[in-house]
Each structure stands twice: as C-alpha cells, then as structure tokens.
Specification:
5-stranded antiparallel β-sheet; two-stranded antiparallel sheet; 5 helices
C-alpha cells in the first residue's frame, strides 16, 4: 500500500510541475497567433476614393446611388480619383465600370471631352442607319463615310469620338436618322459641314 501511495504522490508531483509549463506554452502559442493575425490584417486607415456601387455601362450618367466612398490603401490609390460623390455625380462614363472600380477623371467622358486648351469641337452628326447606330456608345471612336450622288462613297472624317448618343424624343420621325454628338478637330468639322444633306454612315474603330 505504501508503494502504491508513493507512486500516486510522485504522479501528482509531476503533474504539478508540468502544468505551469503547459500554461506558458499555451500563452506563447496564443500570442504568436495574435501576432500573425495582426500582421495579416490590412490597416484600417487609407484615402477616401469614390468607386462604382454597381456595374455601369459606357455612357452611363452617374447618379449618387451609383457611387460610394471607400477607404483605399494609400499606396494603391489611382491617379485622378474623386474623394466626394458630389464631384463625380452627373458625369458620364467613357468606358464600362465594374462594381468596386475607382471612378477617375480619365474614365469620365465629361472630363476628357474637351480638356482645357483643347482646339477640338463637339458637333452633332446625323447618321443614316438607325439600326447600326444602336451599337454606338459614348467613348467609341468611329470613321464617317458619305454616299456620293454620282455613286460610290468617300471618307468624311477618318476618326471622331462619340460624345453622346441623342435619345429620340416624341415627334422625331423614325426614318430621320440617329443624331450623335462627336468630338473632332476643326478641320473635320468643316469637312462634315460640306456633306450636309448627304447620308452619312460609319464604321467602329478598334479600341
């Protein structure tokens, strides 16, 4: 009986000695885990940036509900971003934006249409083919052609940029053609004026 009692005393003594070591090991492990989590957690600080709140097609007019301000890591903030929804609202996109994409001045047609000091013009052009014109979106580059009275066709303008596709209102005849406003040089504007009254068609240029 004394031997059994001695064995029990030794077992309890070992358990008492080991228990603090286990506690210390557990604390060290917990501290190491917390350190790893802290290192991998992105900083909550950053720069406010306006981003798209939903997928937006080219030529979309931005509304306040289409935009939201989020904090971006300062090192990842793109150039020419907006920090306020009011500054970007009511402008039009020149390209499609996916949800969460930063809204920059280079992605807005209003900002790139006629930069300060530009000699370009914005001019309305009537396109003869309504069905084909339904493919057009702001920001696209197109080439303009005209059918000649004596036959054949001629390039009217080698390259212009769509600024806006005019939505037809009540009272406009169905066969009157689609009106678009385009960004072009003063030379191209003068040449298009020479073809007033003639049917004008287009080809979409690759991006």
């Amino acid at each position: 009986m004394r031997i059994v009692q001695r064995v029990r005393e030794l077992s309890m003594l070992r358990t008492t000695r080991i228990r603090p070591q286990r506690i210390i090991a557990a604390l060290c492990f917990a501290f190491a885990c917390a350190l790893v989590v802290w290192a991998l957690t992105p900083s909550q600080g950053g720069t406010p940036v306006v981003v798209a709140n939903r997928n937006l097609p080219p030529g979309a007019q931005l509304r306040e509900q289409d935009l939201v301000v989020v904090d971006f890591p300062t090192a990842l903030v793109p150039d020419q971003t907006f920090t306020s929804v009011d500054d970007a609202a009511d402008k039009r996109t020149s390209a499609g934006l996916s949800k969460g994409s930063p809204v920059t001045r280079s992605t807005l047609l209003d900002e790139q249409a006629l930069p300060a000091g530009s000699s370009d013009l914005i001019m309305p052009v009537r396109l003869v083919d309504d069905a084909a014109a339904s493919l057009l979106q702001p920001g696209q580059r197109i080439r303009l052609f005209s059918s000649l009275p004596e036959g054949g066709s001629e390039v009217v303008a080698d390259e212009v940029t769509i600024a806006r596709v005019i939505v037809k209102q009540d009272g406009i005849a169905v066969d009157s053609g689609q009106i678009v406003s385009v960004i072009l040089s003063s030379e191209d504007a003068g040449r298009i004026a020479e073809f007033t009254g003639l049917p004008i068609s287009f080809a979409i240029l690759p991006r």
